[in-house]
Each structure stands twice: as C-alpha cells, then as structure tokens.
Sequence to fold (648 residues):
Amino acid sequence: MSEILLEVKDLTTSFQTSEGKLTAVQNVDITIRKGKVLGVVGESGCGKSVTSLSIMRLLPKNQGFIDSGKVLFEGEDLVALDELEMQKVRGNDIAMIFQEPMTALNPVFTIGNQIGESLTIHKGLKGEENRKVCVELLKKVKIPRAEQVIDEYPHQLSGGMRQRVMIAMALSCEPKLLIADEPTTALDVTIQAQVLDLMRNLSKESNMSVMFITHDLGVIAEMADDVSVMYAGRIVEEADAVTLFDEMQHPYTRGLFSSRVMNVKKGETLQCIPGMVPPLNNLPRGCAFAPRCKQCMPICEEKMPELLEVAPNHKVRCWLYDERRENQ
Amino acid sequence: MKNYVIRRILLMIPVMIGISIIVFSLIHLMPGNPYAYLIESDARAEDVESMLQAIGYYDPLPVQYVKWVGGLMQGNLGYSIKFKEPIADMIGRRIGNTLMLSGVALILSILVAIPLGVISATRQYSIFDYVATIIAFIGLSIPAFFFALLLVKFFAIDLKLFPISGMETLASGFTGMKKFVDLVYHLALPVIVLSFIQMASFMRYTRTALLEVIQQDYIRTARAKGVSERVVVYKHALRNALIPVVTIISLSLGQLISGAVLTETIFVWPGMGTLIFQAVMNRDYPVIMDATMVLAFMILMANLFADIMYALVDPRIRYK
Fold:
C-alpha cells in the first residue's frame, strides 16, 4: 500500500432545498493513494459529484453544506480551512475538470488568458514567461497549432479540444491531485479514448493522483487502480480494481457490470437493474438498494448494512456478507 | 471585425431610405396648407396661387420627395417656413445641446446602474437588494413628465437648489469655469429625469444577467482554479453579464434620444426636442421632416455604436 494523499473521513453533505434538507452524501470514506487513480462509480444522483465538490469546497453557496466529516489532504483538514486558504489549495494542490467541456470554459476570454490565470495566481508568472508555459502545456495535452490556439476563444475549438484545454488548465500548477468529474461523458467514443490515454499518461509522468468520477465501468477498468462504488449517497463497495472486477460482491456492482453493452451476446437482451435510484427525500429505511435488489432479504428492508471488510482491502456494504444478519 | 463594421454601415443606407419615405409620407398625409399662415388676409387669390405654383406646392408627391432627398444629400436642408431661416443653421445650433443632455444622462445611468446591479446580485435578497429593487420599480413606472414636474416643484421651486429651466442664466455674462458650473446646474434636473428611468432598467438587467451567469459552469471552473471571489464576480461573471446589458443599453439609446424631446420641452432645453415641438406647433413641415431625419440618423449611429460595442464584448460575434 503506497502513501496516502487524501483521506475523506465520514463526510456528510446536505442541500437546503424548498422541500427541506436533503442529504446527498452520507458518512462517506474515501482514500486516494499517491500517484494512483481512484475510480468512483455510480448512477446519476448517487453523490459522486457532490463528494468531489465537497473536497474542493465548491458546493453551491447557501445551498450545499458539509455537515460533518474531514477531508485530510496530506494530513491537513480542508474542511477547517477558511476561504482564502482554500483558494490557495484550489488549482494549485488540487485541480478539477468537469463533465461539460462546451460550457466549462469562459466564452469571452482567450484560451491563453484562462490557462495563464492559474499560473498568475499560484506561481506569479506574468507576460512572456506565462505565455511560454501556456504554449508548453497546450503541447503537452497534444493540441495542434498551440501557438495559435492560445489566442483563440473557446467557441473556435471542438469539444475534445476544449476538454484538453481544461486538462492543460488543471495541470498548469502541477497539482498533486486531479479530480475528474466525468471528463469524457460528453465526448464521442474515439475522442474519449484519446482523452483517457492522455490523462493516464500525464498522471504516470508526473506521479499525480487522480480521482476519476464516472458511471462507466469500462472507463474504470481502463483507468483506475482503486475503485469505490457509490449508491444513494453511500459507498457500497470498495476494493482495488483487480479485486473488484474479479470478485465483485455487492448486487449493485454486479448489476452495473452486467448492464454493460459489451456483455450482451447476439440475440440476447441487454441486462439492466430494474427500477430507479430512490429520491433523496424518500430513501428506504433499510438498504437503499433493497427495492431494486434481486437478492433482497427481510433484514435489508429493515436496517442499513455497514461497510465491512470481506477480504483484505475489499469492503462491501451488504447483508449478504454480514454474519450478524442472523442475530438481528 | 472590419467587415462586420462595414456591413453594419452599408445596412444603414436602405434603413435611411425607408425612414425618409415614411417621414415624408406621414407629413404629407396631414391635411391643410402649411403656408396658410403666411398668406395675408387681403392677398389676391391669383397671387397666392402663383406663389404656391412657384415654390412647387402642386408638384406630384414623388417629385417633391426627390427634390427633398436630393437637397438633403447635397447638404441643403431647405428653409423654415416660419422663421425663413436655413434649417441647417437651426439644427446646427441645437444638436450639440441634445447630444450633451442625452450623452450625460446615458453615461451617468451606466456608471450608477451597473455597480448597483452587481451589488444587488452579489447580495441577493439583502436589504440593499430590496431597496434598490423598490427604487428601480418606481423608476420604471413613473411617467417622465410627472417625475420632471415633481423635481421642478421640490428642487427648483421649494428648495431653489436648481434653476427651473433653460441652459444658462440669462444675461449673466459668465465665462470660463463659472459658465461651466452654471451649465451643470441647468443640466442637473433634466439629466436626473432622463437617466433615472434608464438607470432602473439597466440595474435590473445587470442584476438578472449576473445572477444567471454566476450559475454557469465556467464560473465553477474559475473558482476551481483558485480565483478569488472578487475576481470571479468582476472579471469572469461581469464580462459575460455585460453582453445582454449592452444590448439593452443599445436598445435604449433610441428611447433616450426620443425621451429627450419631452424632457427638453418641459425644461425648455434648447435642443432638437424643443425644435421639433415648436415646428409641430407651427406646422413648419420642412423643419419637422429634417429634424426627424437627423434624429433618426442619430439613433442609427447609436445603434451602430452599440453593434460595435457588442462585438467588442462578445468574441463569438466578432468572429462570425
């Protein structure tokens, strides 16, 4: 086990909405190792993005709140930092790229201006020097005509190019952790593969840790060293990638895996998990997955199972693997 | 960018032709003879007839139109029926005054409204926001002439802070700095009337645009870079929020210039507004037509300026 870079401990995040308080993330623990890629998988609305925004402390103001928990980054609790200290962490130690490259860049500033901004803020680079580093960064993310692109505006670039620009921007201050929130979801498949390749190589090169959020298990298999599976705001299974794919335990993980298109043979219908993610304001009393689970037992509807270690470095939150279910 | 501006300027030509036809037709739809004033009661009918013949009163309308437009193109605006003075001179004396009044009002309303809109948006639902909103709604709903009369009543008549009307203290003989201060005193009330209404709408638009932009993904990107909140608002958000605000400002330029007609009349400001008002009262057709054309041209120029501004703030337009 290599050194730990970031540890999320018992994080609970909620939103104040017109229908009252909704808990989007509940008691989540996440560990990211130095230089490794952690994949976070789950359906839409399971709390993946909220977890990442909580780490960055970028929850929408006056709406999202971290209720409890710690985010230890190299031993320092980010939740306890004030806004000014947090600004020094963002973009510098932890950078983030988002799902929608089409809207994630500011339409009225040039590419050079937007990449150069973090260099100015965190490294104090200005003028020619700043520009030189920007061009290098654009070349690093394999953007052709980097010298021209630097003076262009986002609307002149394609989606894949914009995501590369986002990556260049994120890498500009050589962060120790890159949070990628579904970075390839909005791209078409060939571009997706290129961007994934690029991210993997860049992370290896600079020994940068990556928290990779996606709903695509295929991408996880390609990218991740460790995997956390989330469902309805909780971690339901976590292991290193090899273990997880060989011995996945939780019915939800298995459901996700068998719903992949490539598992379908000719003439078969596509497998899927029946039902929908329960709304956050109406979670079942027991296990949140129980209503959709094929192996649901009476206890599943009564009590939320705990996240238990079933094998070294493999944890599952499911009554199937919890011996105490007989005693309950 | 150059092509964009050239295209905009070329587009103005058909618009000007259209406006001239409309202005000409509307004036000639009015019944009656504008020269009736000039005819002495004891003049002989044949003399009147031959005079009207000589000045082209009986020419077919298309001929009259071509004569008029031909004159305009050569810079010959004709003569006022009432004052027998070249119209070019009359307009020349007044156009600067109108530009001064509406220009100062425009600049003042932008300078006040945009910062207020930003503060309102960044402190949404604060007391400041509520007070600004209430004042803005008063500004939007109060008729300009009524507001003008209220200001005259309080500030000019009761408090005697500002002069009631005009552009300078008559027969004061002020020069230099004193003359300027005197002008500012006379400008104050009409400028307040003209800018208050604009201010209200500019402020509301700035607030709305900024609140919308603040929700955008690229604002989150900026925050994720470690940009401070102040820079997020004033650089990343405001530059984008200004795009719709520039549109609104450009649309209001016409309103500002035509609004000046009423305000000028109330404050007896010697500008284009009072000129047109007097010309209408005197049935001074050539003056009405020429002054309207000049106003229309000013509005078109203002729109051209707005289009250029629009391209400057939004690169997506510049490169189309």
Remarks:
- Chain B has a mean pLDDT of 87.
- Chain B touches chain A through 22 residues (CB under 8 Å).
- Chain B has two domains: 2-73, 88-318.
- The radius of gyration of chain B is 24 Å.
